[in-house]
Design goal:
By secondary structure, this protein is mostly helical. Helix content is 69%, strand content 0%. It is built from seven helices and no strands. The longest helix is centred in the middle third of the chain and has 33 residues, at 51-83.
């Protein structure tokens, strides 16, 4: 997916309004996906580690994803400022800003799971369920922002025809995988216990 969402301009020419941060987009997508799949028994390269080690890896990967997203947002805003154009005029820009802010807050919401003393009287099971569900919503926001970015003039010039459809299919498929993992880990297990 990381390669599919960052094609360069084709045909020797430069695509119009090329964003200054193409290297950061794949890292954000890759880091967010790996952070969310860290707990998956089927898809995680960390499956042999303890839950505590997986939680630390999840935290590090998610913090790196938020850092890359914030850096990318800052670079795009700076580039738009240099060229005298507004950034938050498109749905991609607005949803992207909302996603970065959401993930920053969501990352803070995971601190009570890392440090149980911060949770107070909240049961850890409920906190995990709420954090996983809110994380899924944030991941879907990120995929929506990515897909909206693929509708931009820059991307549609860089990826044409079947390549564009394959690129759009990547966030859709990863969203389904992440939704399945969260559902299997929390929702279906909870229903079967009642």
């Amino acid at each position: 997916m990381a390669l599919a969402v960052s094609p360069g301009p084709r045909g020797g020419g430069r695509a119009p309004e090329a964003p200054p941060t193409p290297p950061l987009r794949p890292q954000v997508s890759l880091l967010m996906t790996e952070a969310l799949l860290a707990f998956s028994p089927e898809a995680s390269p960390l499956r042999g580690l303890s839950r505590k080690a997986k939680a630390r890896a999840h935290w590090v990967l998610q913090a790196l994803a938020v850092l890359c997203a914030a850096l990318g947002l800052g670079l795009v805003a700076y580039n738009k400022h240099l060229h005298g154009t507004g950034h938050l005029r498109t749905w991609h820009g607005r949803i992207g800003l909302l996603t970065v802010l959401y993930f920053a807050v969501q990352s803070l919401g995971g601190l009570p799971l890392l440090y149980p003393k911060l949770a107070g009287s909240w049961p850890p099971g409920k906190l995990r369920l709420y954090h996983a569900t809110a994380g899924l919503v944030g991941y879907l926001l990120g995929c929506a922002s990515l897909t909206l970015g693929m509708c931009s003039l820059w991307f549609t010039t860089a990826a044409r025809g079947a390549a564009w459809y394959l690129a759009v299919l990547c966030p859709v498929l990863t969203s389904l995988v992440v939704m399945n993992q969260v559902s299997n880990a929390y929702l279906y297990r909870k229903r079967s216990q009642h």
